[in-house]
Amino acid sequence: MLELDHLLIRQDDFSLAADWQLAQGQKLAILGPSGGGKTTLLSAIAGFVALSQGRIRVDGIDITDLPPARRPVSILFQEHNLFAHLDVAQNVGLGLRPNLRLSRAEHDRIAEALTEVGLTGFQSRRPASLSGGQRQRVALARALLRNKPVLMLDEPFAALGPALKAEMLDLVKRIVGLNETTLLMVTHDPGDARRIADQISFVADGNAAAPEPTEALFNAPPPALAAYLGNPT
User: What is the pTM for the complete model shown?
Assistant: First the structure.
């Protein structure tokens, strides 16, 4: 379970509050207008943004004061941050060992992760030789290989075409479902949220609302969400 306990982030004239829980294995889409704090919320959970108050817990363990590298979360941004001088296997292997001193068993795990994302046989390729979708698959394989209880995606597929984006969303949904991983995904696209998420948190006006079931929320959106969706009430 992910718990945001009276979380508050303040940065100059910006503030964001959140006070809710998300059960293990739930898939949450985070919607809201640009500048509302969606990425900031993920960055705070990952440890890249300090809290002004509140606590963050994963499975009952307080992670608020842990450095990012020790938190039980993985995060994948739209910019996939692959290293051009490393091949695919090495880029994925960073999820296991930053020094890339990998055992045979770990090389086998890398091959399995690449198979999971549809990149069997791509180990020796360099990022420059891959398509945008393939590069995102490599970054996803690295995140999945870390096998953390919480996976966070910050619009990682926004630059992909509709068909490839749908394919990637379905892939993520299948894999996190198999592993019972808790998923948080920032998106601007209600269609993406409907495709992958059990619940929605709408972020606006300084507040990340408590998660609500996806279809129920879209069927009867509160005024702020209705306005965001282009259906003001």
Answer: 0.87
